[in-house]
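The material for today's practical consists of a large collection of protein records. An example says more than a description, so a record of this kind follows:
***
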Amino acid sequence: MWQRILLISSMLAVAWAGVFPNYHPHFDFVQWTTDKSLDDYEAESKWWQTASFYQIYPRSFKDTNGDGVGDLKGITENLSYLKEIGVTATWLSPIFTSPMADFGYDIANFFEIDPLFGTMADFEALMKEAHRLGIKIILDFVPNHSSDECEWFKKSASGHPFYKDFYIWHPGKMIDGVRHPPTNWVSVFRGSAWEWNEQRQEYYLHQFVKKQPDLNYRNPLVRDTMKMVLQFWLFKGVAGFRVDAVPHIFEKHADANGNWPDEPRNPSVNDPDDYGYLDHIYTVNQPETIDLVYMFRKVLDDFKSEYGGEDRILMTESYAPLDVVMQYYGNGTREGAQIPFNFLIIEELGNNSNAFNYAETINKWLKNMPEGKTANWVLGNHDQNRIGSRLGEDRIDMMNMLTFTLPGCSVTYMGEEIGMTDVWISWNDTVDPSACNSNPDKYESLSRDPERTPFQWSDAFQAGFSKANKTWLPISPLYREVNVEKERSNPLSHLNIFKQLHKLRGEPTMKHGKVEVKALKQNVLGVKRTLLKEFTYVTLMNIFNEVETFNLKEAFENIPEEMVYEVVTDKSKAKRGDRLKTNSVTLQPKEAVILKSPGRLDTTVGYYLYYTAEEQTHN
């Protein structure tokens, strides 16, 4: 009998491997029928592999001192909210000493807390409360550049022997007796990427704003110093780092004379100050960047080896070709980032994308991911339009359903769980340097301010964010309808659906099961999650505005005759717990649901069989 079971299980494992050969969950059917229990596999799981990550933009989360800017005490006082919505770990955008030319991404001291946000004692209090609640803290690590007000840069400009080559300097080139920047390289924030320094009488490179000089990672002293930065915050108890702007860290190596080549023109862009004017073949995605990520990972692993505890993680930001991003995971001998951010949903899916587009985008990551690695799904961040503005407010719930029911971990930008949308900001109120470096006619297409507005806690003054008469960015005019307090009382609010999804993420099938993603029709996407001896779940999304009817049993194999509505939205006619016949499923316009099998999946009789909860017996 057992030989027959093993043969059947082996055949099933081979069949499933054909669905996603590169996706390897923690379970193997043969092992499950023999020597391993669910507890065994749970013990092998890492905390981050199915985690719910939540990005906090500290300026906009909660202001406790009335200056109109969020602070560390505001985060600490509201960590219980993160616990309420099921957050495993929260990533904080930069909180370090900074002149705020780019709102904290221009760091003047990598070892200090900026007084705008509080003190080191405030940070330590935050860490203590987070530990009490079981929430991990991830810090933003900005390795590409510092502020020009950083002591390192000041000493480099003065020619200090230790810091002389901490940054990328060049005297420029003389043309007809006139000094010019060394190359035609363009800053991400418009204009030349080179700025003249009077004291040193040389140009320095800045791939972002001119107050953000690029560090020189070909100098081993820089690499060693940044290792010390990581170690300093690890000793403070952080669980890892989100690494900013990774593709920009290295430029092409200079030639024997210390010169770099110009980058070629991009003929589709005619504005010479626009970043897209050039094809950036020498200033991003250089091969040395991958090795640097591996070096950062080793710092974290060495710390764990010496001091114990759980994994410390790297989350890398890289808007780069997929084959490059996949290298961030590691190369088979060296480990890289556990979570190289997956921006495919942001980059590839728009308001008119159909179910085939969605399936292609999702499967692209799963098929290309190296063996044994963990997928991640990012819907938004402080640099991207909010999901409700990008894809539509009526798709907010379905997109949260999608990311929570796909394998791996999810990354949520604060406010997406309550359905916050972009806020229009006038030219006079605009503060984002990306937009301020342009003009009143062009700024809206460049500004990131709309997605950075203060969090909406309640319908009270300033949405409960601050008692200040003026906040650093305007409050959304929709705050009276879209806020935490109001949504807590509505069972089908974005917030409460988000909470349901978190609870569902804890189910064994969602944590360890197989996945199959496909377009069932032009407008309908299906995600099936299956695990032996556990419940099967199917997420269904009607992406557009027509009523859609289809046969779910024909769309996926081994679907039971009936399933149960596990998660519904305000667009659903059905209620949670209702049953439906799977040979004829109807979805309302923009409706998304999650269905659950009436019993657990078993193969011990030689084929898939669903038992009811009452009939289920465990060996």
